[in-house]
Structures are given as structure tokens and as C-alpha cells.
Design a protein that fits this description.
Rossmann fold; single chain; about 260 residues; six-stranded mixed β-sheet; 7 helices; about 25% strand; alpha/beta
Length: about 260
């Protein structure tokens, strides 16, 4: 019997504003298979990041559940998932090495076993020259490399990414997208299932096997779209096939918002 790596079942989320309750997520359901790269896309403010935090076990759903290989996720578990944030979330008083080591400390890896693991991911993310640097000495792109290395170092089954390239300049973001795709496609990596939140349609089409499209708030799933464009896709970004896929998703979102929401390319 096939069991998805992640299954989101009828997730709803409400927040209280005074005496009223505001629904953010409304009956969200989808699943992700092992070694899939899935993007969640939707209008600004529709609850994408909230959904990701629920999947990570960092926030509770008002109703519904999230399952990892058939078992409900009841809280954060670094062995199941690790998250990369758009704001980098590095500790300013710790060096690059120490920031990457942090996740291993949190799961109780003995000190003598941490060094080879940290060194492996420092090398993977091309941070060799910055091991002893502090975050204030790094560019935005280098900070995000540290964030990726820290998340991967605990070797979770699933990598969760919350708009990881949105704070970067265009050239740096493009290079990191390539790097993340190389990591995902590497059969030797322990982490091979990726879920990414994005507000950019072309980024989702470039990177994902499937795009989950959400409506405006309260968010519902209005599309679960397979992306059949061959990989690697950087050579296809100017093709008619690529533009047609982006336009179709854009129309879907625009229709769901009454034509008022225009996603940026």
C-alpha cells in the first residue's frame, strides 16, 4: 500500500481577532511523495507560511491533521523536517560553523561526531572560507547558504522552505535555486523531499514537480498542477511551454481573487 511522505488532511486554521474568529486556511488537503519537489503558491496573505508552520509542527491546526508516513505530526521533529526561513534566522553571536552545529546540538549529537557532519555541509554549500565568520560579516546569499547547511545537517526526511530566495538579489537567488535543485536531485543526499512556499509563479514552475495553488484567504486548494517540462529547466524559461504554464497558473489565481491579484514574474 502506498503511503505518502507527507499528507495534509482537511487542515483548517482560525485566529481570534477580539471576539471574532478569522479563518485563514479552509479544508486544505494534499499529499507529497518521497523525492518530490512541491511548491505552494497563492496570493499574498493567503496563509502559505502558516500552512508550512503547521506541516513543520511549529503551529497547531484548528482542525485536520498532517501525517508523516501515515503517523500524525504532533510537534517539531528535526528528524522529519527542517525549515529554511526567508529572514535567514541565524544567531548573530555564533559563527558560521556554530550556527550549522546548532541543529545537531538540539538533537543530541555528541560533540565529537558533529565536526565531520558540519564540515560536510560547509563544503557542500561552499562556505569553507567563512567557517569562522559571524553573520554580520556575510552577504545575504552567504547567510542563506548557512541556513540551508544548518537545515540539511540534521539530515531530515523533508526540507521545508519559506520563500528562501525572496530577500536576495536576482543573480544570487538564481544561483541558489540551481544549487538547491542540485542538492534535491543528488541521490546520495539523505534529504530528498522538498516543499517550498513561494509568491513567484515562474520560480514555482522552474523548480517544482507539482504546484499546489491556493486561493485568497481563507485559502482553499484550487489547483494541484503537475509540471511536465523537462529538467533542468533553466534552458526552458524563455520557451512558449514555460510561459503557457505560468500564464495558466496566473489566470487561476487572478480568477480566484476576482482579477485583483497580479503575481509578479
Amino acid at each position: 500500500m502506498f503511503v505518502p511522505e507527507i499528507e495534509v488532511r482537511h487542515v483548517c486554521k482560525e485566529f481570534s481577532e477580539g471576539r471574532t474568529k478569522v479563518k485563514i486556511l479552509d479544508d486544505i488537503s494534499f499529499s507529497i511523495s518521497e523525492h518530490e519537489f512541491v511548491c505552494v503558491l497563492g496570493p499574498s496573505g493567503c496563509g502559505k507560511s502558516t500552512l508550512l508552520r503547521i506541516i513543520a509542527g511549529l503551529e497547531k491546526a484548528s482542525s485536520g491533521s498532517v501525517l508523516f508516513r501515515g503517523k500524525e505530526i504532533s510537534g517539531p521533529n528535526p528528524r522529519i523536517s527542517a525549515m529554511i526561513f526567508q529572514t535567514f534566522a541565524l544567531l548573530p553571536w555564533r559563527t558560521v560553523y556554530e550556527n550549522i552545529e546548532l541543529g545537531l546540538q538540539s538533537i543530541g549529537v555528541p560533540a565529537e561526531k558533529r565536526k565531520p557532519i558540519v564540515s560536510k555541509y560547509i563544503k557542500l554549500m561552499e562556505l569553507d572560507e567563512f567557517s569562522d565568520s559571524f553573520p554580520f560579516e556575510l552577504s545575504g546569499g552567504m547567510k542563506q547558504r548557512v541556513g540551508i547547511a544548518r537545515a540539511l545537517a540534521v539530515e531530515p526526511r523533508i526540507l521545508l522552505m519559506d520563500e528562501p530566495f525572496s530577500s536576495l538579489d536576482a543573480m544570487t537567488a538564481d544561483q541558489l535555486r540551481r544549487d538547491v535543485l542540485e542538492i534535491w536531485s543528488d541521490s546520495k543526499m539523505a534529504t530528498n523531499t522538498f516543499l517550498m512556499i513561494t509568491h513567484l509563479i515562474d520560480e514555482a514552475v522552474l523548480m517544482a514537480d507539482r504546484v499546489i495553488v491556493l486561493s485568497k484567504r481563507p485559502a482553499k486548494v484550487i489547483g494541484d498542477i503537475p509540471i511536465d517540462i523537462p529538467r533542468p529547466r533553466h534552458d526552458y524559461v524563455r520557451s512558449s511551454e514555460f510561459y503557457e504554464m505560468c500564464d495558466m497558473i496566473r489566470r487561476m489565481i487572478s480568477y480566484s481573487t476576482g482579477g485583483k491579484e497580479a503575481e509578479k514574474r
